[in-house]
Amino acid sequence: MTSARVLYLCHGHPALHPGGTEIFAHDLFSAMRASGQAEPFFLGCATRLHRPLRPGAVLQAIAPGGDEALLSVGRFDRLMLAQTELTAFAHAMSELLTSFKPDIVHLHHLSLVGLEALVLIRRHAPQARIVMTLHDYHLICANDGLMLTCPEGGPCRQPSSDACHRCLPETPATRHALRRLRLNNLLSLVDQFIAPSAFLRERYVDWGLGAERIQVIANAVPAEDAPIPSGGFRQRRTFGVFGNIAPHKGTLVALEAARRLAAAGVDFGLRIHGGLGFQPPEFRQAFAEALTAASPLATHRGPYQREELPALLAAVDWVVVPSVWWENQPLVILEAFRHGRPVICSDLGGMAEAVQAGRDGLHFRAGDAADLAEMMARAASDPDLWQDLHDRRPAVPTLEDAAQEHLALYQELMQRKDAA
User: Which InterPro entries does the annotation name (predicted)?
Assistant: First the structure.
């Protein structure tokens, strides 16, 4: 294709906050740059929590190549997905859009970015086609995109202004209705949505986005030159949990399962890899107490850098993904399969779609520590099971695969624009 100028816009940068969305968005940018078939630019947002804001420098370079930058943002209305300090943001965005002249603007999240960005793109880069990847449920759910009811914590299957008011009673139902109207209006400016899983696509179709507007393109992870060895036939008793530690990630469920296994005298080990980030004191206390109750067979190894992940995966036999929310397509599942580690995950959402129970992994009832403990005990006692699941693990898309799929979509959108 003719080399397209692609602006990738994300709510963060993996150098400051290594979440799954930030990592994949930046990986896609890097793969696109390496392909030589596009001219990409990556723009991530940063707040005072990430780094001190620099007066007079709303746009800040973050990499020596000149094709990555940070956009400093101030206060943000998370309910309405709106910038509350719009002047500097709008000026910086209009300056970048006017100078870069993108053919494609690919948004990877609207948190910190805001719906106003869609209007600015249409105004200052009218030639650009707008693509948005739906990495989670933030557009549907004002409860931090978790689609969990409050205070019960169960999955929300029928969001509405009244249902949202019951979960978030401090916000009137009329305010939730206005949020939905605002979203309906401004999301009409998006030319194409992408969903990394069919499950997430279905949730957005149920919510009201047209099915024809959402294309499924799976997430991907870097190809490894030498996947970690399987280690031969032996007992497989070491489990690992990877990623940010938070209530919705089910870390406490995994620790309670570990406590139960320890009390039952099962020989195993559980390694928790990840940081607590900005979690509130009450959750930190609950995590510390759960870790103590499961010690010494369960240990917290702290946060890790991405380049450390292969070695950390090499030290475990099973990867546990105990999230209590629907997730989408967690990168850790793809990393586990890439490195030959079977997955034990909750039986819902994008996790259950990515892991086929009994074929390449195991499911347990989401939030049920006793059921997870039973699955872990089964896994620890049956090396044949590990080998069978290992041998049937699926192929994992590479970033090069993902770049080509995205390039094909960009080409189609540009041709559609030219024909209009």
Answer: Glyco_trans_4-like_N, Glycosyltransferase_grp1
